[in-house]
Design goal:
Its EC number is 4.2.1.47. Keywords: Lyase. The protein has two domains: 199 residues, Rossmann fold (3-Layer(aba) Sandwich); 87 residues, UDP-galactose 4-epimerase, domain 1, CATH 3.90.25.10. It is built from ten helices and 14 strands. A seven-stranded parallel β-sheet has the order 3-2-1-4-5-6-11, with helices on both faces. The chain is globular. The structure holds ligand A2R. Ligand A2R binds next to helix 1 and helix 4.
């Protein structure tokens, strides 16, 4: 039976991916740093800090997965500015610990390393949809750490570890932290609707264009990537993107339009990120050509599900 070790299982993407893996018939072992309250009772959980090389080796030796889906990371750009050492220790050395453990203890396992479209950085200034051959010019510690993790991964691939690297663009959906822009908008709208916030939504840069994907579509791409374990001669690197340029202002307008409330918009200078990129869109022809993958969920439906989620979450917030 196909047995996946899922790192970062307790995160935003991990929870969605777990459901899809189980539905597709995989046996799943979930690696988490702490036993979260939301964990399912019917899957195996492993306590694992990927910064601990010995723990990674012991976990891989015991579980001997056929596949590893590596999501665990410090994933938040502002956190990476505040704590670059934690970011590099987790994203680079943690990934190396895992790869070394795979090489030593589960050498037949196929790994999907989840990187980020942030690695392109300055290259986005070309103003076109970037493909996998575009230069990588990271503009923040998070992006730099992800690119370093990719380089580490490629070295292990050269030494015989089997796997691929995914570069997902902005994925959004129910369960995401309000540190991210669409979740922040949806949360504020839900707070306004419930009378817990004045009818003014605080926003950062609305001019930027982003490539938004529903987290469920991103997870379906990861499942497709796992199937490459049965093939040979596949590319090592895959963008996962919608290829649509969507202005943040239009996301805000759509969300506000889906609300029954009349809402004013106010610029909050503290929400402007230090290294903002005006246009970040990806070309994912490779995912389509090699794996026949394309996103299927419209942005409108994604935003509707986000609002539904935040309406129920703010009810329980203090
Ligand atoms: O802190 P926890 O227990 O919630 O676990 C987080 C996990 N993580 C770690 N796991 C093992 N050892 C560590 N030292 C460690 N540090 C963090 O990574 C959490 O469950 C997960 C990250 O979840 P989120 O921050 O919600 O990220 P998201 O959006 O699910 O992104 C998944 C992947 C990341 O590699 C991103 O960089 C990429 O997709 O875009």
């Amino acid at each position: 039976m196909k047995h996946v070790l899922l790192t970062g299982a307790n995160g935003f993407v991990g929870k969605v991916l777990l459901e899809q893996l189980l539905a597709a018939g995989y046996r799943v072992s979930c690696a988490c740093t702490s036993p979260g309250a939301s964990l399912r009772a019917d899957v195996e959980h492993v306590l694992l800090d990927i910064r601990d090389a010995q723990a990674c080796a012991a976990t891989l030796e015991r579980i001997k997965p056929t596949h590893v889906l590596h999501l665990a990371a410090v994933s938040h750009v502002p956190t990476s500015f505040r704590d670059p050492l934690l970011t590099w220790n987790t994203n680079v050395l943690g990934t190396m610990n895992l790869l070394e453990a795979i090489k030593q203890k589960a050498p037949d396992a196929f790994v999907v390393l989840v990187s980020s479209s942030e690695v392109y950085g300055e290259a986005f200034k070309a103003g076109v949809a970037l493909d996998e051959s575009s230069p990588c010019l990271p503009m923040n510690p998070y992006a730099a750490s992800k690119l370093a993790a990719e380089l580490a991964g490629e070295q292990y691939f050269r030494q015989g570890v089997r796997g691929v690297i995914a570069r997902p663009f902005n994925h959004i959906g129910a369960g995401q932290s309000p540190d991210f822009v669409t979740a922040s908008f949806a949360r504020q709208i839900a707070l306004i609707e419930s009378g817990k916030q004045a009818p003014v939504i605080q926003v950062g840069n609305l001019d930027a264009y982003r490539d938004f994907l529903d987290v469920r579509d991103v997870c379906s791409a990861y499942l497709q990537l796992l199937t490459l374990s049965e093939q040979s001669g596949y590319p090592r690197l895959f963008n996962i993107s919608s290829a649509n340029a969507c202005q943040i202002r239009s996301v805000l307008n759509e969300l506000v339009g889906q609300s029954r409330q009349s809402i004013a918009v106010e610029l909050d200078p503290q929400r402007l990120r230090p290294s903002d990129i005006p246009f970040a869109v990806g070309n994912s022809d490779r995912m389509r050509d090699v794996l026949n993958w394309q996103p299927t969920i419209s942005l409108k439906d994604t935003l509707a599900s986000l609002l539904v989620d935040w309406r129920s979450r703010v009810e329980t917030e203090q």
